[in-house]
Automatic annotation (TrEMBL):
Pfam families cross-referenced by the UniProt entry: Glutaredoxin
Physiological role: Has a glutathione-disulfide oxidoreductase activity in the presence of NADPH and glutathione reductase. Reduces low molecular weight disulfides and proteins.
Keywords noted in UniProt: Cytoplasm, Disulfide bond, Electron transport, Redox-active center, Transport
Source domain of life: Bacteria
One Gene Ontology term from the biological process aspect of the record: cell redox homeostasis
MF GO annotations: glutathione disulfide oxidoreductase activity
Gene Ontology annotations for the cellular component aspect, listed alphabetically: cytoplasm
Species the sequence originates in: Paracoccus isoporae
Keyword Cytoplasm: yes
Family per similarity comment: Belongs to the glutaredoxin family.
Protein name: Glutaredoxin
Domain Glutaredoxin, chain residue ranges per copy: 4-64
Length: 85
């Protein structure tokens, strides 16, 4: 099973939707709350190629983008392949 990390904030509906999809797929993930730590937010932004929005999702260290990107991967059938790696 792939390693999944998701950078979030508690009030972000897109974060909740992305986590819900991952939970529905029984995927374990490491969640990093960036809401109160500017250093974590900066690290996320650097890692995500300048994107500051949440969620930012990484599968096996590769940034896949946000919730819309996650759902698009799922819709296209590519998410399960990435998660199985």
């Amino acid at each position: 099973m792939a390693s999944v990390e998701i950078y979030t904030t508690p009030t972000c509906p897109y974060c909740h939707a992305a986590k819900r999809l991952l939970n529905e797929k029984s995927v374990s993930f490491r969640e990093v709350d960036v809401s109160r730590d500017p250093d974590l937010r900066d690290a996320m932004t650097e890692r995500a190629g300048g994107r500051r929005t949440v969620p930012q999702i990484f599968i096996d260290g590769q940034g896949i983008g946000g919730a819309d990107d996650l759902f698009e991967l799922d819709k296209s059938g590519k998410l399960d392949t990435l998660l199985a790696a």
